[in-house]
Amino acid sequence: MNSFVIPSLLPVVVLIAAGYLAGRRRWIGGNAVKDLSNLIFLLLAPALLFRAMSTVHVQELSLKPVAAYFIASGLLFAGTLALRGFNRTAAVIALANTYSNTVMIGIVLVGLAYGEQGMVVLLTLISLHSLVLLTSATVVLELAVAREHAAVSGEEKRPMARTVLRALRNAIIHPVPMPIIAGLLFAQTGLVMPEFLDKPILLLGQAFGPVALVMVGITLALTPIGRHWRDATVQALVKNLLHPLLVAGIGWLLGVRGIPLTVMVVAAALPIGANVFLFSQRYRTSEDLVTASVAVSTVLALATLTLVMILVQWLP
């Protein structure tokens, strides 16, 4: 039953380990991480995403699996707020519980394990992932901040409508959803990409996987965990195990089956995405805990992803 799981995960593990070694040896220092990240997200990822979607027709897409993912994520997000209260810290923790590293790890893993069919399902999710989760988190965080400001006399309330519109714009005009949308629109024209353009785009896309995974390893090597490792471990287990369990349950209730359900569950089992750390920095809350949680979640994913990918095969 698990014959394909280990061969799919091993290249991911080896490349992350290579990046970790490079980071520990300081072959790539902290100052170069931002530049490497820009290379991945502004050049390599758009090439891969555009080309992957440039032959996909709209009728091939199914939104029910994506709906199951977001319903489960919404329940987990709301449950976190209910337990921790309506404040900035709770909102950032809730985002960490639901926001997966679908690009840097997910694309490579799903491509290796589930092929082209799985990639179409994952890229449908990725095209909406940041738009839905980051925009929702921004609205909640801004409402929490507005509530804090309202408690201080003389403080001017922040314009929520402008904040929401800015969040929507930033989520759409982004190097991840934009090439997916552009590739999908190109596919509907029926045109074929000229080889002199298609070949360089293909080569750039092929570079994404190894470079992105090496980058994950470098980031792990440079990330301090410190005294937050216990709380970070709890946070990681919620993300890596509870999130996919909820997605599996909601997907099953909605009648999602086969590869679409499998990919959604595996996507939910992916470790915490780095954007959560950016939110913790922006709103100045739980930076150390989120940093440690991203690192612990990524390390634990080597075991938890294996477990989830084996168990998900038993779903009818």
SSE diagram, text form:
Elements: H1 5-24, H2 30-53, H3 64-84, H4 88-98, H5 102-150, H6 160-172, H7 177-189, H8 195-222, H9 229-253, H10 258-269, H11 275-282, H12 287-311
Helix pairs in contact: 1-5, 1-8, 1-12, 2-5, 2-7, 2-8, 3-4, 3-5, 3-9, 3-10, 4-5, 4-9, 5-6, 5-7, 5-8, 5-10, 9-10, 9-12, 10-12, 11-12
The level of helicity is over 70%
What integer value in Å does the Rg equal? 19 Å
Biggest sheet architecture = none
Just name the CATH architecture.
Answer: Up-down Bundle
Pfam family, one: Mem_trans
Keywords: Cell membrane, Membrane, Transmembrane, Transmembrane helix, Transport
GO biological process, one term: transmembrane transport
Membrane topology: Multi-pass membrane protein
Task: Kindly describe this structure.
With 316 residues, the chain is an all-alpha fold. The protein has a single domain, classed as Na+/H+ antiporter like fold. The protein contains 12 helices and no strands. The longest helix is centred in the middle third of the chain and has 49 residues, at 102-150. It is globular. The mean pLDDT is 87.
Which short descriptors sum up this protein?
316 residues, mainly alpha, Na+/H+ antiporter like fold, 79% helix, globular
Put the structure in a nutshell.
The protein has 316 residues and is mainly alpha-helical. The protein has twelve helices and no strands.
